[in-house]
Amino acid sequence: MLLRWSRMRPVSTMTFAPLRTLGLAGALALGGCVGDDVSTTSDSEGSTGTTGATETATEGTDSTTSSGSESGSGTATEGTTEGTTEGTTGTTEGTTEGTTETTGTTDGTTGGELCDAGEGVSFTFQLMPENQNMIDFEVDWMCEVVEVTAAGESGVNLEMACTDGDEKVAPNPVLFVDAQPVTELVAFTPGLQLRMIYGEVYPWWTERWVRLETLGNGDLMLAGVYGSSLNVSDQNQVFAPYTTAYVDGVCAPEEGGCGTEERLRLTFTRGGDAPVYELLDDTFDIIDGDPGVSTWIDSATAYVGQPDCTDTPQRWFSYGMVFDGQE
To answer: 132, 191, 275, 321: most buried by Cβ count inside 10 Å?
Structure first.
């Protein structure tokens, strides 16, 4: 169960550590290797919201068959998956708030071709001052952009003035974002009113998520996940209005540090007759319009068979979206 920061102790009396950037390699070191043993599998996210335009959609519960199709239930969107598997389908594990995972098992290897090398894509983020007590939390704050400043060669610091209910959050929280290709967060002008959802959990490693949306209409401005599922939060749908899913059997597996791994393809759709956008692990694209939404797939990998390392998630996703006016 997630603890809200304000319920652990009043925000106004919290003592924060000095601001510093948390390298995500440090978080990965807590858990060793990352990946998963999957057949054709999908995660989906359900909520309402829009991207930096005006369209509103909802996302629902997805289930997947080995033929590579998804069907939505609940609040209704459909995504598609592609790929073939060798093995048998397995069990279904449910999560809360309209999100399900259908997982399969494979013996040996999955299909796919030897994929081209990745593009050197990266997307990392961290809320500062960082959490020091390693207790699961999720905050939901109303914020106003103060300024965006450069941080190193490819990073930016987004400083915001935020309130948690009637209390002012002190000091001002700063969301650090480092991406390749670089984003300058040009749409985040001073005075922009935002709702920020940010959380972290600590199973045997660190997982985090973030969502920034405009106040009032809920337009998606920025979203990111770093964890063992496509939507780490069990209370909020981070990438709404997009339904996200992953497809295996695309790339031939290769040996990694903790076993045999394969690269996955992620799909994004608004549902209905909307296009399905597909991005492979370690790729970048601008999707859904002109200007569109910059989308980074830093990592989307899974194990074929059980990983050889202990305290290791079976799959790993690190990806983000930013509405930054790029064409």
So the answer is: 321
